[in-house]
Amino acid sequence: MSQTYINKLNYQDFVNPNKPNYITKEFEKLIREIGDCKSKLDEDRLIEQQIIKLKKFTKKKKIKPKQQSELVLRLLFCQLLGHDVSFAHILAINSSQESNLFYKFIGYLAASIFISTNEDLQLLMINSIQKDLKSDNTLAVSIALTTITKIITVDMIPAVLSNVLILLKHQEPLIRKKALTAMYTFLKQSPESILKHQKDFELMLDDKDISVTGVALDLFLFISKTKPKTIKHLVVSFVEILNLIISGKLPIEYDYREIHAPWIQIKLLKILSYLGQDDPNTSREIYQVVQLVLKESEIGFINGIFAGHAIMHECIKTITKLYPSTKLLELASIAAGKFVTSYSNNLKYLGITALTDLVLVYPEATNKHQIIIVDCLEDPDETLKRKTIELLFRITNKSNISFIVEKMLSYLKTQKDQKYKTSLVSRILKLAEEHGTNIKWYILTINKILQIFGDLVNHDIVYNIMKLISEGSLLEDEEDEEDEDDEEEKESGKEGSQLTKYDGNTALKIFSVNIYAEIISLKKPYPNILYQISLWVAGEYSYLCTNFTTEEIMVNVVDLINAFYISDETRAMAITALTKMVSHSGKYLEQIDTIIQKYSTSRNTDIRQRCFEMKGILQLPNIIDNILPPDSINTDIEIDTNLEFLNEFVENSLKNGGKKYISKEERIKMENELQLGINENKKKSKELRFEAYQSNNPQQSSTWRIPQQNIYEREVNNNQISNTIEIENSISLKVSGISQRWTETGYSGFKENENQNIENKKEKGEEKNTNDNNQNNQNNNNNNNNNNQNDNNDNNNNQINQNNNEKILDVKSFRFNRIGSKEPILEEENKIQEKNLNNDNNNNITTIKQKPPKTEEELKREKTVNALFNGVGSVRTSRKKSKSQKVNLNSKHITKNTIEKNNEKVENLIDLGSEKN
Amino acid sequence: MIKFILIVNKLGQTRLAQYYTTGLSINKRVALENEITRRCLSRKDKECSFLEFRDLKVIYRRYASLFFLVGVDEEENELGILEFIHCLVETLDKYFENVCELDLMFNIDKAYMILDEMALNGNIIETNKKNIIAPLHIIDQVSKKLK
Fold first, then answer.
1. pLDDT digit string (tens) for A467-487?
2. Closest CB from B15, B98, B142 relative to A102
3. Beta partners for residue B119, in sequence order
4. Helix (H, G, I), strand (E, B) or coil at B69
5. Which residues share a beta bridge with B17?
6. Mapping DSSP to helix (H, G, I), strand (E, B) and coil, where does residue A621 land?
């Protein structure tokens, strides 16, 4: 039938078209030119020119209705061919407001098409639509209703709803029909408000015109999808209408190829399928009519008319959805069989689609057609093939898995769509995993898949295979394998009997190592993933291999390592496999030396690492078995999480004065406390710093400040004095001092110290208290220098470090206290001592001099600076050496008392310092 | 539900396009049409008339130089649509008396009107040719009186 149309259309093209009388020459020219365009480019150029012309027209103030409608048609063409004509949308609106029906029609038509890109148009049109709905002219009403279905939005429904409801009872079937379509649009946009009027369109089901009923069915189809319960009482009516149609009582105009109103039948079947879904009672009401429709449509089937097939297909779909009835399901599967075995690809496609749904409720449906279904995979039609694959995924079971997977793989090879391929490969792997009953088959299949599509496979499969081989068993009836088919058990039993001397697991390992050793020996550029599995298996179980000797495998692996087609990752695995094989077999190849030599300098760190590992392990023949014991994949390695073997070491260290480990929680707690202290510190330090840094001349600054500065000076001085004797030769103290001198504020000058130190004489009372802190400072400072000498003094150093850490805290808190302390009492002795000291030892004093309380930031910086500039510091101090020695001499006799108070740790520290020197 | 009806010629040039879904910009529309047309044109005669494209099913039928393409959703009956296309062509043929590509271009308004009489909201509303053509004749009478 369609053939005749093909011929007709061919001869008629561009020869003698029906040319309406209203067409102007210009419009005709445009149409002809568009028709002559041979490419999209020509067409675009033409339309762009046309749009320029049209823009000129739209600027005119007065356009005659006739010309306007012609312009609108031209605009319509421009938009149709993909160009924006929003500049002239208003023309369409204007045209729709003309009184002439034709202009009105053109206007509405164009506007409803333009509207998709310009929502403002809707508001401009609503008035004229409202007016036209009340028109006496049937066609005007019809056109307005048609436009409503295309442009209406939720907000506009109330404006027209009442009019449309009246029109539902119009005497003309055309208007009733169109009013119902408008109602459908409203229903879709705002179901709640329209369902109130359900009674109104329930009446339309009994309309004397079947077309109107047909449109009413659209509304019920929509409701049956969303709220099936509200229309269950109408099932009888639907069944009745369906019976009426198939009995041939409709006017003959509704027949299409001897089938009575096929599209209405389809609609009814759809509604019934939704209503009967999961509802046995309703389904029972429907069974009979569906069976009848199916039987009627078969008549069409014999005549080779597609409309009949369409109904039959719909019947199958309905039966699938209804509450299952074995009788109907059987009929459906017979019908589907007719589709599948048909000559036409369209029918085959639908048959496969129908079966895909049908097998879910009726698995027997495909039993007879399996061969035909699989044959569909060889069809050149891609759509059909993809559908078939979907069906095959559903009908795969333990008995046909190997056959289906094989077919799928050969189909995959022809595929070019990478994305589709990837998803398909993973699905096939899943399928094999789910339905594969035979481990041998599974391993072989996976290998086959990996050989071809290894690059598309998720790497999880590697671990699955590894796990399977290490844990699986070939003797399935022996172990706790579940729900195996009898046949399969027998089969695997046979396999097992051939290998009776091994248990199932070993048999599997032998089987797989033979396979994978062979893959390695083939030396083909297979995907890396396959080689990785092969190498792992060969590495683990080479000693079980019966087809190859370990040496042979080793030679092959060596060749593989040198092959260009494997990745570095694989190469690294190969080296490990080689190590394992040497370790397990105790055999060694000369080539291995070459490998080690060659790849020890590899750019890939992993390969290099593994080479060195292998080298190292091979040099330890005594413990090699412990490092790589055979078949150890499933043995859990005991991990001593408490590191108990270190206990002795820890105890020793504690005995030697090491500090106890502080757990993370405790540390956090401590840090928080510290933070609190610092925060308070900060508040006060702000004002202090401001003053202290500003003035170099204490005499000029306000009086209250001086004592505070003095406090620091004094501390420092005492500190200096107390230690100078012991550390005569020590660089460490001085170093830190010097490096500290260069602080944020720059060089803290001599003068200041001199002056301040004079004032310092005043403070005395807290001298004793300060001793400890001074020592701490000293420790802190020294520590940095000592770090350089750690090698020789591990124990001491640990101790010192820890002490320092502890005392940094103390120092801080001390400083903090000092700020608030009262003015110290003057003491004469110290005055003299300090004067001497200060005179000679300006440098040192300044350097160790403490600033007002430091913020956390400062402390940090200080630490880092000290740490960083250790080396620099020591160089600097050596220059100052002579000077400091002088000081030491001077202070010797003065500070004897203080020295005695020093604790052992400081002495240690000083010892260190002197050792260094 | 029908998502769109498209008539293109064998060069892939759109001759008629009716969408039943909103919110498609011109650019997206053109891209969609190009892609679908390209795929349909590349298919062979013996292959089935269905094409799965994203979440759409495209059902197409060729008549000489014109392709009729209908995009539908998952639940639509494919053969029903295939027959609907034929019904549409028959109706066009009946109205234009031996319809050709140029007929559709000169009478794009009428072509749209026929389509609107047959399908609205993505549903098939009328397949009775008499009913479809009746309003068109009225329009024709009106337009003939135009000066």
1. 777 777 765 443 433 333 333
2. B142
3. B124
4. strand
5. B6
6. coil
Q: What is the mean pLDDT of residues A642-660?
A: 82
> Amino acid identity of A747?
Y
The band of A849, judged by pLDDT with boundaries at 50, 70 and 90, is: very low
Contacts of A24 in chain B (CB under 8 A): none
Where does the pLDDT of residue A491 fall: very low under 50, low under 70, confident under 90, or very high at 90 and above? Answer: very low
Instruction: Using an 8 Å CB-CB cutoff, list chain A residues near B73.
Output: none
HSE on the CB side for A31, CA within 13 Å? 25
Q: Is it the case that residue A882 has pLDDT exceeding 70?
A: no
pLDDT bucket at A851, cuts 50 / 70 / 90: very low
Contacts of B77 in chain A (CB under 8 A): 266, 310, 313-314, 317
Tell me the angle at which helices A439-453 and A504-522 cross, rounded to the nearest 10 degrees. Answer: 20
**Can you tell me the mean pLDDT for A304-331?**
84
From CA A492, how far away is CA A903, in angstroms rounded? 82
What's residue A635's pLDDT? Answer: 63
Contact between A6 and B96 using a beta-carbon 8 Å cutoff: no
Tell me the per-residue pLDDT of B39-52, one tens digit each, with 9 for 90 and over.
888 888 778 888 88
pLDDT band at A303 (very low <50, low <70, confident <90, very high): low
Give the least confident one: A62-66, A483-487, A518-522. A483-487
CB contact under 8 A, B61 and A8: no
Helix %, strand %, coil % for chain A, to 5?
Answer: 75, 0, 25
pLDDT of A22 strictly over 80: no
User: Could you tell me if A99 lies within 8 Å of chain B, comparing CB atoms?
Assistant: no
Distance CA A859, CA A874 (A): 21
B41 touches chain A (CB under 8 A): no
Chain A positions touching B13 (Cβ under 8 A) are 34, 37, 40, 43, 81
pLDDT at B72: 92
Where do the H-state alpha helices sit in chain B? 26-41, 78-96, 101-106, 108-118, 129-144
Give whole-number Cα distances, A272 to A234, A268, A743, A749, B124, in Å: 10, 6, 90, 101, 18
Is A117 near chain B, with CB under 8 Å? yes
Q: Which two tokens stand for residue A324?
A: 């299952």
Distance from CA of A439 to the nearest CA of B (A): 37
The interface predicted TM-score (ipTM) is 0.94
- pLDDT attached to residue A721: 46
Q: Which residues contact B104 (CB under 8 A, 6 or more apart)?
A: B7, B15, B16, B66, B92, B111
> Is A261 in CB contact (< 8 Å) with chain B?
yes
Q: Which is nearest to A516 in space by CA: A431, A568, A574?
A: A574
What pLDDT, on a 0 to 100 scale, did the predictor assign at position A24? 78
Distance between CA atoms of residues A792 and A913, nearest Å: 12
Interface check for A51 against chain B (CB to CB < 8 A): the answer is no
Q: Are the C-beta atoms of residues A256 and A262 closer than 8 Å to each other? A: yes
Tell me the shortest Cα–Cα distance from B8 to chain A, in angstroms: 11
A424-447 tens-digit pLDDT: 888 888 877 777 777 777 888 888
Are the beta carbons of B26 and A83 separated by less than 8 Å? yes
From the CA of A668, how many Å to the nearest CA of chain B?
56
- Within 8 A by CB and 6+ apart from A304, the residues are none
Q: Specify whether the CB–CB gap between B89 and B64 falls below 8 A.
A: no
User: B71 to chain A nearest CA, in Å?
Assistant: 15
Contact A105 B26 (CB under 8 A): no
SS3 state of residue A381: coil
- pLDDT single digits (tens) B58-93: 999 888 888 999 999 988 888 889 889 988 998 988
List CB contacts (< 8 A) between B146 and chain A: 21-22, 66, 100, 102
